[in-house]
Design a protein that fits this description.
By secondary structure, this protein is an alpha+beta fold. The chain is 22% helix and 35% strand. It is built from seven helices and eleven strands. It has helices spanning 27-37, 68-74, 122-126, 134-137, 142-154, 221-229, 239-246; strands at 2-5, 12-25, 42-43, 55-63, 79-87, 98-106, 109-116, 157-170, 178-189, 202-203, 209-215. An eight-stranded antiparallel beta barrel has the order 2-7-6-5-4-8-9-11, surrounded by four helices. Strand 1 (2-5) and strand 2 form a beta hairpin.
Length: 254
């Protein structure tokens, strides 16, 4: 992970460069594979014991009326980017960190940039007609400049909320290798990060877990053996795309 600051007086952005591989697991496979992974890795330090050594992930994705980001993923566009607001809880409180994130993909290579924002500014991120105000609030921050430029050019706005529970594993021997198990995927069409409790939530992948493998250069030999033993094949799956489909915001006609 590489952290940068555009100016000494500017908020700090965090930049991640890595590969991300995904696998879809049923309940039996998830239990077997996670048991083996736990022999080599430890829980991430951010887990909560009350959630059985996991944590919530909540993302509010930006999209436009033409569903451009959805179709870029479906069509396999080589270089693409999308934006989301991300937090790690389902109920608002003033101490809960909230980030604006840009995720850029070039085939398997992923670059993610994120900036922690003030929750008082959420209402500006919700309203495309106010995006330009962010240039003054977060002056000199390139991530914000890209978000505003793309936001105005593509006419994006918050459209889709995605929740899931993540159990993350890290390695003491390779800090650049990370494995996560994402389950209980729920999604709803909304333009708020913390909508009312009356929202119509839909299940995204009932009974399945998304195994994500994140690394910089290589996958350890022991994990290769797990992949081979369980005959796992990489699966092109996007929580964003799945959410757009199950909420009826977009349809895959390919």
């Amino acid at each position: 992970m590489k952290s940068t600051a555009t100016k000494s007086s500017s908020p700090r952005t965090e930049d991640f460069y890595r590969y991300e591989f995904k696998y879809l697991l049923d309940l039996r496979s998830r239990g077997e594979i996670e048991s083996e992974v736990a022999n080599f890795m430890d829980y991430d330090g951010h887990v909560h014991e009350e959630l059985d050594h996991a944590y919530y992930v909540r993302s509010l994705y930006f999209e436009n009326e033409a569903t451009t980001h959805f179709h870029e993923k479906i069509d396999g566009v080589r270089i693409r980017r999308k934006y989301r607001l991300r937090t790690y809880g389902t109920n608002f409180n003033s101490n809960l960190p909230i980030y604006i994130e840009e995720k850029k993909r070039n085939l398997d290579r992923v670059q993610k940039s994120r900036l922690r924002i003030n929750s008082e500014h959420l209402k500006i991120f919700y309203n495309p007609f106010q995006f330009e105000e962010l240039l003054k609030i977060y002056s000199g921050v390139e991530l914000i400049e890209r978000f505003v430029f793309d936001g105005l050019r593509r006419v994006i706005q918050p459209k889709l909320l995605v929740d899931y529970i993540r159990r993350p594993y890290v390695s003491s021997y390779d800090m650049n290798f990370r494995v996560t198990f994402d389950s209980a995927l729920l999604t709803t069409a909304t333009d708020r990060l913390f909508p009312s409790a009356l929202e119509n939530w839909a299940q995204g992948l009932a009974g399945y877990t998304i195994l994500e493998v994140k690394f910089n250069r290589r996958i350890p030999a022991w994990f290769h053996r797990i992949l081979q033993a369980h005959n796992l094949r990489r699966f092109s799956i996007s929580k964003f795309v799945r959410g757009m489909e199950v909420t009826g915001l977009a349809t895959n006609l390919s």
